Amino acid sequence: MRTIRDILIGQDRYIEFFFEMLVLSGLYLVSLYSYLFFHTLVELFSISVAFGIFVIAWNSRQFINNTYLLFIGIAYLFAGAFDFLHTLSYQGMSIFKEYTANLPTQLWVASRSIQSISLLIAPLFIRRKFNYNIVLVIYILLSGFLLASIFYWKVFPVCYIEGTGLTSFKKTCEYIISLILLASVVLLLRKRRYFDADVLQLLALSIILNIGAELAFTFYVGVYDLSNLIGHYFKLISFYLIYKAIIVTSLIRPHDILFRALKQSEAGLTELNQELETTIAERTMSLMALTVADRVRNPAMVIGGICRRFLEKEKFPDQLIRDLEKIVGETERLESIVKDFESLLKLRQSRFVYEDISEIVKMVLPILEKEAAEKSIGFLVNIPEQPLKINAQKNLLRGAIFHVMRNAIDATPRGGRITVTTSQDADKIILTISDTGSGIPKEVMERVFDPFFSTKPFRFGMGLSMVKQIVTEHLGEIKLESEVGRGTTFQMVFPARWIIPLKFKSRHESQ
Predict the structure, then answer these.
(1) Which helix (H) or strand (E) holds 432?
(2) Per DSSP, what are the bridge partners of residue 418?
């Protein structure tokens, strides 16, 4: 059932439509009496709308996060200024007496070029901050250049010839402007989620009618003929629609713009809050884990210290000495594991960004090359010049690479060699670390990535387990090949430039 409000709204629309038809009919009668007067009225209306959009956008820039509106407002200020000059220079106004009807046509092309290009660029600034002072300066310089080319240098191409009509340059410009406006509609519709539905519809229709006006202005021969009249009608309706879309909405229903911006901000804040809560939870867990690790380490260090003092000062049976030595060894191993664990938690504080894996390798080389040189171990590094980009937590991945390389140094005897290469195979980026050490037996290889695994002389502890976890969190995989007596090769394989998931199940499942 229709409510009284619906009925009143329907009546208001009929009344509004009646007055719109009345104005259009009145303007047609005016054109029959004086086309110059008709032209002036139409242009003054479009100029008023253009300046009105600028005033609203400029004065609301501080409290409405609508960069599209601000960009359009600045653009329409300058387009309206050119339209004002176009109106003053129109044939019969007798203001620029030394100029022909070519002048208003040139100014028209300049104005429509500014308007169309601005409408094409404007959707790119939705929810993207820009320095409006710089944009103002750019428009001032562009407008000054166009005006100088028309009035001072007089190099702006001829657009209209008396008795002949429009030049091919002018017609070509109108077609190009129409294509630019069509592209701006497509971009605008792609960004529809950022606009109120009614406002979006009015903006799109306004641009489409603007295209109709441009096409109509490619046919006239005399500046007072029918196609010129039709073109100005299209322009009038186009500016009327943009007037309803921006000015009426801003003045009569400002909450539609403001609340929509707030709603979008609320959605963004909700997403940010969820991410923040996740980060806080992770940091809290990290802090708790560090606290627990510290509490475990301290008693272990005390026990180890006591056992060392006993071994140094007292004489015990051989079996007791072996037991004490075992306790000391286990406490040292526990301390090493806790240190690895603390390092992992601290490294997790970095964020995922695009990184060149070759640059990460270069970061760890100086320390490791020095250690290798002390053992007379050769270090062969093969890194390509072109960047190999992956999304990475740089500190975390650097720690994993550092650990594998240091293991290679520890496993390689004096005079041996370590080879490090980075390469790209299709959509994979590969980091290879090879050594000429003693190698790893098959029965040991099956367990080297297990947490807390340690069998002398292979002391992997938490290290390689954490390395595998880090590589997995980067959506990669780690491969191991080894031959006893010949050496070991680790390969870390990563997808190139992958999209970061918001949460890593593998990380949480492993904790």
Answers:
(1) strand 428-435
(2) 379, 435
DSSP string covering 461-472, please? Answer: ETHHHHHHHHHH
Structure tokens at 445: 């290889």
pLDDT, residue 456, reads 47
- CA 139, CA 131: separation in Å to the nearest integer? 13
Can you tell me the distance from the alpha carbon of 171 to that of 239, in angstroms, rounded to the nearest whole number?
Answer: 22
Q: Are 390 and 497 a contacting pair, CB within 8 Å? A: yes
- Over the range 215-239, which residues count as b (16 or more CB within 10 Å of their CB) and which as e? bbbbbbeebbeeebbbbbbbbbbbb
Identify the CA nearest to 104 among candidates 52, 36, 168, 56. 36
Q: What is the pTM of this model?
A: 0.54
Mean pLDDT of the chain: 79
Distances (CA, A) of 477 to 336, 338, 414, 472, 494: 25, 25, 30, 6, 7
Q: Characterise 82 by phi-psi region: left (phi > 0), alpha (psi -120 to 50), beta (else).
A: alpha
Long-range contacts of 196-201 (CB under 8 A, 24+ apart): 196/249, 196/256, 196/257, 196/260, 198/245, 198/249, 199/245, 199/246, 199/249, 199/256, 199/257
Asked if 389 and 356 count as a contact pair (C-beta separation under 8 A), the reply is yes
Which distant-in-sequence residues (6+ apart) come within 8 Å of 236 by Cβ? Answer: 24, 27, 42, 45, 46
The CA distances from residue 221 to 42, 162, 229, 390, in Å, are 20, 8, 12, 61
Q: Which two tokens stand for residue 158?
A: 């001829």
- Within 10 Å of residue 139's Cβ, how many Cβ atoms? 18
| Tens-digit pLDDT profile for residues 411-451 | 888 888 999 999 888 788 999 999 998 888 888 888 888 76
Question: Is a pLDDT exceeding 50 seen at residue 43?
Answer: yes
Structure-block tokens of residue 39: 């032209």
Tokens of 503: 């949460």
Evaluate the omega torsion of the peptide bond into residue 457 and state whether it is cis, within 30 degrees of 0: yes
Q: Identity (one letter) of the amino acid at 244? A: K
Euclidean distance between the first and the last CA atom of the chain, given in angstroms as a whole number: 60
Q: 353 with 392: CB under 8 angstroms?
A: yes
Contacts 24+ apart (CB under 8 A), 188-192: 188/119, 188/123, 190/123, 191/68, 191/123, 191/126
Of 220, 241, 208, 237, residue with least CA distance to 42:
237
The amino acid sitting at 368 is: L
Mean pLDDT in residue range 65-90: 90
Q: Is the pLDDT of residue 223 over 70?
A: yes
- Cα separation, 304 vs 287, in Å, equals 25
DSSP per-residue codes, 293-342:
HHHHHHHHHHHHHHHHHHHHH----HHHHHHHHHHHHHHHHHHHHHHHHH
User: Hey, what are 488's tokens?
Assistant: 């070991």
